[in-house]
Write a structure and sequence with these properties.
The protein is an alpha/beta fold. The protein has two domains: about 160 residues, Glycogen Phosphorylase B (Rossmann fold), CATH 3.40.50.2000; about 160 residues, Rossmann fold (3-Layer(aba) Sandwich), CATH 3.40.50. About 45% of the residues lie in helices and about 15% in strands. The chain is built from 14 helices and eleven strands. A six-stranded parallel β-sheet has the order 8-7-6-9-10-11, with helices on both faces. The protein has a five-stranded parallel β-sheet with strand order 2-1-3-4-5, with helices on both faces. The two termini are about 10 Å apart.
């Protein structure tokens, strides 16, 4: 079986959850004997492939171009939507570009509708995501739930390396791009109210927002930039709690990594996180008072049992690849 995966042209320059999901799924599918190629530019020649797998309909313009070319050729198409309705986020962000984003969302929604209606199979990351898509776009397109995954290496995370290098342990950690959707500024405000230090790991996506976070932190925040996987794993093991209070997540790959590394997990209640983590995490809305309440509960409670074993048993990339392969086979039957 030969599969062409297509995603936005910035997928390798601006790494995000969709980059990881696509690359890790590809690597695990190759282990199953599937030939997988990635292209980030439109193509008209699909003769070498049995199937096209598209990713991400939030930034829809490029996905729509990929879809049009594949549809015209007549090759089967599957889609990982990686979707959550961003309107709540767009309405609430403190940015002079808010009206621009809302207008863009409304204008591009017809493209999302066409793609969602026209593909052969949807591969949402959770049932809640699928239900939201069905409700908002009145879909009858068939679907299969394909969970997001995690590298089993996080199960063996050890705190010593991080503690030795940075002299920090028991802190509040947030791994992710420094960006308004990840909501680090509200996390910093909540942590400051609890007099707790915060460590942020991840690239700066929005420099203005990064400056706002620095100002909010008043010297109680460490920005470590992007770190490699072994350092991040050690940071998860060293922290007191990992917090991801985003405006939405599906479910937030770092939630799975942190949970597998043995960290206590505080996460947003917007998106699919609860579907993955159940009652083994603490949930918050994106507002500072809710984040503060969840942080306080997590910091002063013992770890909720069973999370590491639950993640290892259900959400590794090899398991994701197996169900993805079965979905491909169903489309090609």
């Amino acid at each position: 079986m030969k599969v062409l995966m297509q995603n936005r042209s910035t997928i390798f320059k601006m790494l995000a959850g969709d980059s990881v999901q696509m690359n890790k799924t590809r690597e695990a599918l190759i282990q199953l004997g599937v030939e997988v190629e990635i292209k980030t530019q439109p193509t008209t020649d699909f003769s070498r492939y049995d199937l096209v797998h598209l990713f991400n309909i939030i930034p829809i313009e490029e996905t729509y171009q990929f879809y049009q070319k594949a549809k015209k050729y007549g090759i089967p198409i599957v889609l990982s939507p990686i979707y959550w309705d961003p309107k709540e986020f767009l309405i609430n962000i403190d940015s002079d570009r808010k009206e621009h984003f809302l207008s863009w969302w409304a204008k591009t929604n017809t493209l999302r509708q066409e793609v969602l209606d026209g593909v052969d199979l949807l591969l949402p990351n959770g049932l809640v995501e699928q239900e939201l898509l069905r409700e908002e776009y009145k879909l009858i397109t068939p679907y299969r739930i394909i969970p997001n995954g995690v590298d089993p290496v996080f199960y063996y995370a050890n705190p010593d390396k991080f503690i030795k290098r940075y002299g920090l342990k028991g802190f509040i950690l947030c791994v992710g791009r420094i960006s308004r959707r990840k909501n680090q500024k509200a996390l910093i405000k909540a942590a400051r109210a609890l007099n707790q230090p915060v460590v942020l790991i991840g690239p700066i996506n929005d420099y203005q927002y990064y400056q706002e976070c620095r100002q909010e932190g008043e010297g109680r925040v460490r920005f470590l930039g992007a770190l490699n996987q072994s350092w991040i794993a050690s940071a998860y093991a060293a922290c007191g709690v990992h917090a991801l209070p985003s405006w939405y997540e599906t479910p937030g790959l770092v939630n799975l990594e942190a949970g597998l590394a043995g960290s206590k997990v505080v996460t947003t209640d917007r998106g699919t996180a609860r579907e993955y983590l159940g009652e083994m995490a603490w949930y918050c809305s994106p507002e500072p008072f809710s984040i503060k309440d969840a942080l306080r509960k997590a910091l002063y409670s013992p770890p909720l049992p069973g999370l590491r074993e639950h993640i290892l048993a259900n959400f590794t990339w090899d398991q994701v690849a197996r169900v993805t392969f079965q979905a491909y086979q169903a489309v090609l039957r």
